[in-house]
């Protein structure tokens, strides 16, 4: 089976609960991945909103997740632990910042993407942005999976 990404907070294609929104509790959702491909040495996870008025907006980037890890607990996005690192999101912060679409802009889709990599770490600068880490990850990708949540203000 291919790599799979799920959440206990919302089902694929369904609304993300308000507690995970930036203007509420801003808690990253519990995420679980399974069917990890052989040879995986680390993971990269990003969250993007392709419906943002200015184009793709990147809310979170997590990298150097150990290859044996298969989940991130709810609220993990406020502070990394161990070897795990956070990229700079488009708000300018190194953390999870949840959905915050403009009021009245309609439903936005938040794409959670995880990639299994064949290297033990990504080797990017400390201040790397989400787009930069995803670009670097593509060179080492074994498989990727996505989970889409929606949110509207």
Automatic annotation (TrEMBL):
Transmembrane segments: none annotated. Signal peptide: none annotated. InterPro entries: PEBP, PEBP-like_sf, YbhB_YbcL/LppC-like. It comes from the Bacteria. Pfam families: PBP. NCBIfam families: YbhB/YbcL family Raf kinase inhibitor-like protein. This is Phosphatidylethanolamine-binding protein. The lineage of its organism: Bacteria, Pseudomonadati, Pseudomonadota, Alphaproteobacteria, Hyphomicrobiales.
């Amino acid at each position: 089976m291919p790599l799979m990404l799920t959440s206990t907070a919302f089902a694929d294609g369904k609304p993300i609960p308000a507690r995970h929104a930036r203007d509420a509790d801003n808690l990253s959702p519990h995420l679980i991945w399974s069917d990890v491909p052989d040879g995986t040495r680390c993971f990269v996870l990003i969250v993007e909103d392709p419906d943002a008025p200015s184009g793709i907006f990147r809310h979170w980037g997590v990298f150097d997740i150990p290859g044996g890890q298969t989940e991130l607990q709810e609220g993990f996005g406020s502070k990394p632990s161990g070897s795990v690192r956070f990229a700079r999101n488009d708000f300018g912060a190194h953390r999870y910042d949840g959905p915050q679409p403009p009021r009245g802009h309609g439903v936005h889709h938040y794409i959670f993407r995880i990639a299994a990599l064949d290297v033990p770490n990504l080797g990017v600068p400390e201040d790397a942005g989400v787009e930069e880490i995803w670009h670097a990850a593509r060179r080492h990708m074994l498989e990727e999976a996505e989970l889409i949540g929606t949110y509207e203000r």
